[in-house]
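hey all, quick one before standup. I had two proteins in the batch that finished overnight and I want to keep them in one place so we stop losing track of which output belongs to which input. First protein below, input sequence then structure tokens straight from the run.
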Amino acid sequence: MKLIGRKKEIEILKEALTSDEAEMVSIIGRRRVGKTFLIQEVYEKNIVFEVSGIQDASGNEQLRNFNERIIEFFPDAEAKVPKDWLDAFFILIRLLRAQKTKKKRVVFFDEVPWMATHKSGFLKGLSHFWNSWAVRQNIVVVLCGSAASWMINKVLKNKGGLHNRVTRRIRLQAFTLAETKVYLKSRAVQFDHYQLLQIYMVMGGIPHYLKELKAGRSTVQNINRICFSEGGLLQDEFLSLYPALFQHSDYHILIIRALATKQSGMSRNELLEATKLPDGGRITQVLDELYQSGFIASYPAFGKRKKGQVYRLVDEYSLFYLRFIEKNLKNPPTWDSLSQTQAYKIWCGYAYENICLKHIYFIKKGLEIGAIYTTTSSFLKQGTTQEIGTQIDLVIDRNDHVINLCEVKFYNVPFTVSKEYAEKLREKIRIFQESTKTKKQIQLVLITTFGLKHNKHSLGLVQADLDMDIFF
């Protein structure tokens, strides 16, 4: 399997390999996104030692695992479990020092957060390994972890021996829709854009999930097998997803569950009310961990920075699991039958909005404003007894004196603006202008699946319309 996309990340890794200095590379990305595969593919011929942490293992078990990997990479080494991590790194230094090679070597520590158990001394041993020996060698040390917030706080922002030691940083994202198409094609799995969109709405661009898709089967058949069949990969993935990433994940799951219930997202106060969790630093930490790991996104209110921040669940699989899989575990239905329900229509709208929010680059390109500086936000005007409220999920504020108000519609046919919907859109624009008092030109953008069917109601109202093809 060749690498799909990842051009920027590959370039960073190759630069580290060809530089004249020792390099410490940090790579962060959510579980199943392909971090290990990327490192092993790019550095295949240069890795001289590799070890991965074991989930929920004790410190002694991690050291035993380290010893087994030492024996695998250095067959002549003495089979002796290190007494602590400092001892482990002393052993590694001696074995690496004995190697006779002129090429740059790679030492790869995978799932570092699992190795660095409480009071284990792993980070102390790692910092000694780097500062006392590796920093003067022709070497690349790769530190990889799925718990993004842990990696940022304990490695990138380390205040001890690893302070400012990371020389290159990579944050590996899920595939875009375009990359998903290429990835599946490389596996001889081909769908049209509408089918790809539906698959992405279910599992996102996570390679490990996408790998489950089988050629010659429809999207309905694939989703049934992967999500609703006994033993399907995604039937119970949710149950292990958050505990694998976060210690004491109960708060994380409560927040994810709360956000899954509200399509428009929630403010911090709304989240506290919905979850009944106490306000304080723990909530701030949990929100940051979920954000850094890509499960939620936060969008500022138009014209504001932090005040009025709206949190939104953007992990496709988590939303799909909570909306459909969990509720049907005892009597799994077919996806074909579920797709005829009102719940399906509501989910489609939310999921497609999330895709648009994640693919802003492609929307800007479709609007031919890729070179213009922009900021994106949401807009919410609470209704009162005197006036109706309104919400706009995507506002693109441009530096050329224009604001795009984007309406997202998921339909299985070209979308038609009715007289009633046209009036609703005009009302949205009016409320936005009066509330923000903006002097910029307002342009309404419709983002649909199969495009807009122009008529007298859309004429002069919709300045631009984009369909799903822009994402591919």
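OK second protein, same deal, sequence then tokens:
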Amino acid sequence: MTALLPPSLPDAAALSAEARRLRHALAAAPDAVLAKVVAVFDGLSDRREADALLDAARPRLRRLRPPRPITFARLLFLPLDGVIVDARAWRRREGTLPRSAIPPLAAAVRDAIGAEAAAVEAASAGRSFADHAAIDAGGRRLWRAAARAAPALALPPGWAEAGLSAEDFRQAIALAGGVWRVADPLWAALAVATVGPPEDLARAALQAAAAEGPAILAAALATLLLKAARPGSVAAVAAGLPGAPPSLADRALAHWLEECRPEIPAAAPEAAARMAEAFLEAMDDLEATPLGRRPEHRQRIAALRREAAEACRGTFAEAAATAVLAPLAAAGGAPDDATIAAIESTARQLRRLERAGRALGAAPAFDAALRQVTDRLAALRATPGANPADAVRLVEILAGPEAALRLLDAP
């Protein structure tokens, strides 16, 4: 990790060669290293340079979801997650916020609500975003106060230094204020987004946003899609709202599909299985909705399924080799109880991964991968001094009882 962090962070705005090197290193860093770097950055009092360095890795951070401490700015802008973009990629248009706008806006809100801000920060101290109760209590209080304060906010210090104009401020505060006004029902849906969210909660959030205007609806929908386990169903709710612009949900879904990247980490079989299952749920949901069945979306969904299926197969093969076959071989086919328990646990996660990968469309590839693994387990079973029962048990976990019986009957 230390190789990624120089003695002092470079000025990212200058786009120096060192800053570019660091951004690329972070984007390519292993998951565990990236999570540690994020933890270091989270401890900085001034995150502007750190945020610039992390921009290239943000899609992976959304997938990894490392525990992040609750900070005032992060909590304040949680309902706007879907429209916050890299400052370098931001273009002057309604509907998005450059990340560089967050520090001055957060400072302006903090100054405006005073004691309320201090109370929220005190209640959130030491809490992380895994603590939904803390978000619920502090977030609702903060968003309501921010919504009340937003209309009277003046151009804050540091705004021009971030390369932003007075018109940018007016658009930003209109967007943020509108989303803060509907943050209560939006958070209710976001809090259970990993199980849908349920249609009634998605509808309540999006109806409230639609009453604020198309820009607020688009922002709320983008944030909800970012977290939703069933993005097609959420987009379908938005598309069916009375008075909603006809193309708004379609554009939001197209953007979600464009940004979607199926990453299945080989170094963490349990996380890989969980992500593959979640990706399968999202793709199945998309294919079941009218928007998802549109030709232009159907083509992208099919491509994503192929990418995810291949990622699952590659992760399965790598993890089976390194976390199942290698430790079994190193133990001469007769590992101790702790080692075999760990290997069997990994095998169960790989079976979950294999099932999701098959459902995504990689059945023939998994047939071949499983044959390679079971053939290797059969060879290890025949190793002098090996415990045959261990290999048979692993084949049963990975390939099912019939494959295990065939191995038992083999000479």
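Flagging for whoever picks this up: The beta strands are 84-85, 97-98. The longest helix spans residues 337-381.
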